[in-house]
Task: inverse folding
């Protein structure tokens, strides 16, 4: 005897399964690769991600990325940092965005890049971007540990253009005004 999976009725086929709201998501949102040619959309994606990292109100809670809060990185600085990242990586076609069908508004993004091993020291950032030096230091340590783990587990190194790294993920699901 098999048990039905949560949210799946016996008459649903594999092409019509509502796994954790997938059918609702398809109805209300469109998912696409961030195009290289649309700078306004690139700015909107940077704003969405910056908001999710700098802090959003959800009900009675204020949700913020702890490192961004600890280092006191402003929304504007975060937005500029993310915009620069997107400009450098958008041509790889690895950033996926979600937009509301009814408004076209960006409500989420997964910004990824072709995984690169870290061999050189990044330049020291100054001014408003100086706090990112601490983030880079932590990230470099974690990336080296990850590379070592992959090598120990699989016996091979990570290859650029073959492996990707999700860099930023954010979702802004305010109460939708669409009906």
Result:
């Amino acid at each position: 005897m098999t048990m039905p999976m949560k949210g799946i009725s016996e008459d649903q086929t594999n092409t019509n399964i509502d796994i954790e709201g997938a059918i609702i998501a398809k109805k209300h949102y469109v998912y696409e690769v961030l195009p290289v040619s649309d700078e306004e959309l690139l700015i909107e994606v940077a704003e969405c991600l910056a908001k999710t990292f700098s802090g959003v109100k959800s009900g009675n809670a204020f949700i913020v990325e702890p490192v961004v809060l600890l280092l006191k990185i402003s929304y504007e600085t975060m937005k500029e940092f993310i915009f620069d990242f997107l400009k450098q990586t958008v041509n790889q076609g690895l950033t996926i965005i979600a937009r509301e069908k009814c408004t076209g508004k960006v409500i989420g993004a997964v910004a990824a890049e072709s995984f690169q091993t870290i061999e050189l020291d990044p330049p020291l950032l100054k001014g408003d971007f100086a706090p990112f030096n601490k983030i880079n230091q932590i990230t470099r340590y974690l990336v080296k540990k990850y590379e070592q783990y992959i090598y120990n587990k699989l016996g091979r190194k990570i290859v650029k253009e073959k492996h990707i790294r999700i860099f930023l993920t954010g979702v802004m699901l305010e109460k939708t005004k669409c009906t």
Summary: Helices lie at 22-28, 39-54, 66-70, 75-89, 131-154. The chain has a mean pLDDT of 81. The two ends are 41 Å apart (CA to CA).
